[in-house]
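[Automated response] Your request has been received and processed.

Submitted sequence:
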Amino acid sequence: MHDRGLAFDLSRLVGRRGALGLFGGAVLVGAVGCSTNEEPPATTGQPAAGQEEIPDETAGPYPGDGSNGPNALSQSGVVREDIRSSFGSGSGVAEGVPLVLELNVVNAAGAAVYLWHCDREGRYSMYSEGVTEENYLRGVQEAGADGRVRFTTIFPGAYAGRWPHIHFEVYASLAEATAASDSVKTTQLAFPAEVCAEVYTTSGYEQSAANLQGSSLEDDNVFSDGYSAQLATLTGDATNGYTATLDVRV
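Generated structure:
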């Protein structure tokens, strides 16, 4: 007797259609079992690097927006690009390494930015001893259709307990900024360590150089929890000045 194989035996047991069904099932199972297709990697829902929203930060004790004493936003002349000199009744001019700051407020055409920072001695106009009658290093700019604002200023000093930084508030419109309405975002930007070290070798920044030695971004009470969305990109040098840029997602 000749062995006609498993297919013949199955055909006798379940008929031709049943046999084909069984073999078809076996082939399908084999194909699935041997598949090398991999599932696509799961997405985390986190923004790509450099695209995260800038975090909310404290305005600090010297905002000059009416929330803690004096209000520069209500004064005529606060809307300006060059913030190195005082305006109105003030006559002082802040000296230091030139800095052009360009902020790109993403998806916020028509927004306005109020910006302020300390001078090279670490003093805040309107608050610190010796400059209470000045309002330099404070100003407002309205974003264009591309969301960009530009300020001409100086590189800020470093005072004890803080990493070199600039404060700013984003408002929905210029009218809301100059009315000191509620801001959309209050935050701060930081500067790279190597640039700070270079600037602080120049005349007038001697105390800043000493203060920088005892601080770091990682230990700063604002930036220690992360600063990737707040660290400005700088080009230039301490002799001719710098341009700082930062994308601001609110």
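Summary generated for your ticket: The radius of gyration is 31 Å. The first helix runs from residue 5 to 33.
If you did not submit this request, please reply to this message.
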